[in-house]
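Aim 2 progress. For Probable GTP-binding protein EngB, the working sequence is reproduced below.
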Amino acid sequence: LFAKECDFFWGAEAATTLPEAVLPEICFAGRSNVGKSSLVNALTGRKTLARTSQTPGRTQQLNFFNLGNRLVMVDMPGYGYAQVSKERSAAWVDFIKSYLRGRVTLKRALVLVDARHGLKPHDVDMMKMMDQTAVGYQIVLTKADTLKPGAIDKIRAQVAVALKTHGAAHPEVLATSAETGLGIPELRGFLTRMAEP
Ligand code: GDP
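Predicted structure tokens for this construct:
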């Protein structure tokens, strides 16, 4: 699957402009700067997301990437932008909720969390949104190379405890690093399984 092309094919700013739901879909959520672009680029071996995350005007849309015509990866822009107006952010939350609730092809969401910081209030808000919309999700720790193995285990255990209070959360917590490649084969394996019919 990862030897194939991975191309941006659609950006949606509102529920009315979503692409047709055809292929199995996985969405990637996380606070800005969590390392989402780096992780997806490490997974695909391409700089697919760099363009989207570096352009501030383009951050408030869901970006759709087609992986080998078998799986769609959706980049959910970093939440927690202080500069977004209340009105705009309310509209954005409504859009995300309707996407999460209504997307029939959405198989799983990955909530990216910086291993150094652990769960932050914005992460918990996103998780609650996924609980409410009944979207199965799991936590992926990023930048695990910045911690010693013992510290990774500790943060993983802390997250695992917090997950017990979230109805839609899967218990696995995967530690990854775009720098060292830690967890990348596992994540590829997971995505490949998700792409199976
Ligand atoms: P995004 O905003 O979530 O797309 O985050 P980026 O992928 O642009 O990364 C944000 C910052 O974190 C950049 O300075 C990256 O170099 C750094 N970063 C990303 N992934 C890793 C990683 O696995 N390890 C380390 N040490 N730094 C990382």
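The chain has a mean pLDDT of 89. This observation will guide construct design in the next reporting period.
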